Amino acid sequence: SNMGNALRPLRSHKTESEYNEVEKCIMLPDDIMLRIIRMLGLIDSANLAATCSRFYCLETRAGASNIREEWETIEVDIYSGIVLSKDVKLSSTRKRIIMHSNSLGTLRALRRIFQTTAIKNVNIKVNLCETAQRSVIDLIPNIGAAETKITHKIKEFSTDNTVPLIGGFKRVGYSNLGLVSGEMERLYDISKSPSISNSFFLPLTDAVCFAQIVMGINHCHFYRIMAHTMTTSRERGKVYYTGGTLCALVLVDGDHETIVYRSTPKMAKIITYNLRRNSAFVRKGLTRIPYVAPRHQRI
Amino acid sequence: PNVKLVTSDNEEFVVDFRIAKMSVTVSRLMEAMNMSETDDASLLSNSIPLPNVTKAVMARVIEWCEKHKNDEPKEEKENDKRGRTTHVVSDWDKEFLKNDEFGRLCQLMGAANYLEIKGLFNDISQTIANMIHGKKSDEIAEMFNIHCDLTEAEKKEIRKKTAWCED
């Protein structure tokens, strides 16, 4: 039979000693190893990664290429407390993964996910807990998503030592985050990093927080009602016009510029009006405006 | 009709045309050499050289192909809910591969990859993945006979990065 034909050489030639002469160290090619790694669970692939630098690189590659183009949204709820016990939910059009972990685990998981995957939308919910805020802010440089939304769990949260951030901006959006002032500075410092500085925009409502608390510009008020005064520094800010209408106000801090969007044409008129009206006062007030150096330049 | 396959160590295997066709590589070579099922002369006068496969490994490959020659083509399965690729290894295949030591499995896998026999390749991939499952790093290193080139600091860093999935 054919089978007989096929097996004959094996039976006639196979000797145990010959067949067992297998090189002990077989270096499977990268593409084969990647295939195997993708069949492994998270713990197994992590253990494999810790064996040598080659497998570590391959494991990272497998993680990246396996998930890229698939994941659409990541949702994270980070609560307060000693242990921030929550889930990380990763979703695509086809599947949804929920990872249960403790606080450190969650944050490490998040960092790892951001480093190795491309996710279109990031939706992070935090509470006031300072630890949670710091952790989330530290994650921001790792987030490469097209849309990032960071929201406070409690809608109407506000206390004396918090800075309410309302609204959202294009890439990294904060909604009523209630950042404590130290974290606001931290967020601002991170926003200067090259990876996100080009896409870090502020809505007008948030500009007050940055101007006053972070950039040290006193008496900075952006009101929606024209009757209210607005003072700011022309030295520390740039104003851009389009066709005679203000389109953006840029707050300058050293090399770093924070762009304040014109949210409505009416808002642009208000800014223009107030800048003109208060220019004398602004010049006088300039001497009182401290310069806030970037964090790394501070003593 | 039969096809002649010649291994790196000059061993000639005569296999059924259907078995030869299970390998995408052999299939392509036959096409290139104008060998067809209906043309006995072309099959008799030609043999397919397989310089990357030894006779011992070829025999194992053929044994697997014999068993699976009547299988329906399998559809690609989507990743499971944890994002892993999964492949179900049949009982026969488990039995077939269970006595192969790791190094031998790797050789067989290399051959399956070179010959492009998807089913066998998937079976061995899953078997190796199963062998890794539940093992600690040092056990995996021993299995692969790897000398760890990571410094203590790098190991610590990797452990730190991967610790989240061990919670």
Automatic annotation (TrEMBL), chain A:
The segment(s) forming the F-box domain are 28-58
Q: Which residues form a coiled coil?
A: none
- SUPFAM superfamilies registered for this protein in UniProt: F-box domain (SSF81383)
Give the top-rank taxon of the lineage listed in the UniProt record for this protein. Eukaryota
* A Pfam match: F-box
Question: InterPro entries from the xrefs?
Answer: F-box-like_dom_sf (IPR036047), F-box_dom (IPR001810)
In Swiss-Prot or TrEMBL terms, this protein is called F-box domain-containing protein
Give the source lineage, highest ranks first.
Answer: Eukaryota, Metazoa, Ecdysozoa, Nematoda, Chromadorea
TrEMBL record, chain B:
Q: Where is the SKP1 component dimerisation domain?
A: 118-165
- Give the protein family: Belongs to the SKP1 family.
Lineage start: Eukaryota, Metazoa, Ecdysozoa, Nematoda, Chromadorea
Recorded hits in CDD domains, A to Z, give: BTB_POZ_SKP1
- Protein's organism: Pristionchus mayeri
InterPro entries per record:
SKP1 (IPR016897), SKP1-like (IPR001232), SKP1-like_dim_sf (IPR036296), SKP1/BTB/POZ_sf (IPR011333), Skp1_comp_dimer (IPR016072), Skp1_comp_POZ (IPR016073)
Annotated ranges, domain SKP1 component POZ: 2-70
Give the source's domain of life in one word.
Answer: Eukaryota
Report the protein name in the record. Skp1-related protein
Query: Which of UniProt's keywords are assigned here?
Result: Ubl conjugation pathway
